[in-house]
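This part of the workshop introduces the protein records we will be handling. As an example, a complete record with its sequence and its C-alpha cells follows.
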Amino acid sequence: MFSPEGPSLRELAVQALSSVERGYDLLAPKFDHTPFRTSDTVLDAVGAALERTGPFGAGLDLCCGTGAGTDVLARACRDSVTGVDFSAGMLAVARERPRPAGPPVSWVRADVRALPFGPAFDLVVSFGAFGHFLPRELPGLFAQVHSVLRPGGCFAFPLVAPPRPGSLGYWMLLGFDAVMRVRNAVWRPPFVMYYRTFRLGDVRRELTRAGFRVELWALPEFGWREDGSPRVRLVVARR
C-alpha cells in the first residue's frame, strides 16, 4: 500500500488493532515508505528556519521515530543530537539509517511523558507526533519539554493550518478521527491518533502555562491561505 515498499492493507489493519507502541514496532521497517513520515519538504523548511536562528548546542528530537527529524537537528546543532521514542522497532530503524555529517547522534527509548533527562538541551523539535496525545495530556507533555531545556532553550515544531470547513481535506480528517473514536470505544488496547485535537489556540495557551514564550513563524515555502494566513507555521516556544 502507498508504494511497492510500503505496508500492505493487512499489515496496516494489524497495526491499527494493536497498541500505539506495538503498532509502530510492526510498522517500523516500512514506515519511511508511508505518508505518515513527515515529508522532506517540511523537514527542509524547518531546518532552514532553525539554521537561520542558531546555531544551537545540544538538540533533542521528541518522538523521533525512524530519525528523519534528527537530520534537521544535525543542521542546527553543534554539540550533540538525541532521538527519543518509545518504539524499539522505530529506534532500531533509526540506528541503521545513513547519517549526514554533523554532531554525534544517540538514541534513547523512553516515554516522552516522563523524559529521563535533566535540563541538557538547547533545542527540542518534534514532527508529526502530537496526534498521539490527548488534549488533557498536553500540559504534562509541555512541562516535560520545559524541564529538559536549558534557560533560553527553544522548542520548535511545524503546525499545518486546518483545512477549510466543508473541503475534502476537512471531511477526510473528520472521518479519520471519527473512525478512530469508534475503534477505541470498542477495541482494546486503544490506538491514540487524532488529527483534529491539536489546535493552535489550545497549543499556544498550554505552552504559555508551561512557562514558554511563544512565537509563530510563517514557513513561506508553503504559501498562504485566502485569508492571508500561512498554510504552515513554525511554532517556536522559548524557555
